[in-house]
């Protein structure tokens, strides 16, 4: 066992999880620690950089508590992405809060650039729509209050805190809206537009390699090399096995009767043309290769491999909101949804606008189709269907897919998986293994590619065309006149 294990650290929005993984993909130890989130004003979402670092150290110590140190050979990170922070490079101390990826306080900065006619230019260079979800506007807001600080995302903060090196991984860098995504370099034009000094930026680093050795600040991690860093959505895609640049094998899913779940085989790689969907608080829909469509983003998957991605702001959070509204729980909402039809009710979760493929920050939340016969069960079903409809919207603009490769907490809901297959008309392959973001980081850090096995949900005949038409009408009503159609 000496030197055979890789420690994967998955630093997420609400918690940090650690997995100790062997070359077969078997998890031999785990650890976790919560990360507080604060909402000081409407639309503001903050975290504390010190608390994020502490959560990493606590979760890692739990994971390594009963494992001889010589068994561990490397560390891989999977991190939340667009969250932004600044710190004093001399002292290493944070110079402000971490602005979470959902934080909207930098909207006026984006609006000012849009009014100057710069939105299309920002998109052309960065591959991303002008939106406060991405890091650049948040970094400008932070630097206005700490002008001499250096800047970074969560991965660059952790690399700096643990190794002393100010660097950022290529995929995370592509989510800052400061990278020329085709050139793979910081864009002087974007830096000028957002007012970010080049001297404040981290250096760009590939996703895998010798990325630094952890110092004494790392506690139980001290002395271990970091050999991989990925954004969380990118890491999940890597874990599914879609590693075209590395020549990973691909194979078809095994068959089954119509309307799953059916047990799929262990795949060395996904079905050709597969699209990865991670279901979480929001959802990430991603496939390798650039897509020439303004409905989705162009991003870096890892190293210099480009990918297309559509980001959905509200998925699991829609169910949580409805549960709170009804005095229920997300689990009870799931059970209600399984027992009912939506009966024409549509719920458009435009709580903070709509992201991909609409990118309409003025859209509002809307429930349509209500009647005197509408009960909580219909609302529950509409909430679950809204997740699948939004994913289908993104898949529609990405182009044909042979299968959806599903991971994340909500995939445990069989009803959602079947609805997703029905609305997209393609099989949904649900990973039987949890924590794919952490596993993707472990696989890249360790240089091994164990297969992932799936359950398959096949599309069933039904009225999906009518449901999609009703959904599109509801989305049009949720959007403002200048955007809606």
TrEMBL record:
Ranges annotated as biased composition (Low complexity): 465-479
Location of the Carbohydrate kinase FGGY C-terminal domain: 276-446
Domain of life of the organism encoding this protein: Bacteria
Region (Disordered): 249-269, 458-485
Keywords: ATP-binding, Kinase, Nucleotide-binding, Transferase
Keyword Amino-acid biosynthesis: no
GO molecular function, one term: kinase activity
Keyword Metal-binding attached: no
PROSITE patterns hit by this protein: FGGY_KINASES_2
Biased composition (Gly residues): 253-269
Location of the Carbohydrate kinase FGGY N-terminal domain: 6-237
SUPFAM superfamilies in the record: Actin-like ATPase domain
One Pfam family recorded for the sequence: FGGY_N
Family: Belongs to the FGGY kinase family.
Identification of the protein by name: ATP:glycerol 3-phosphotransferase
Provenance organism: Paractinoplanes aksuensis
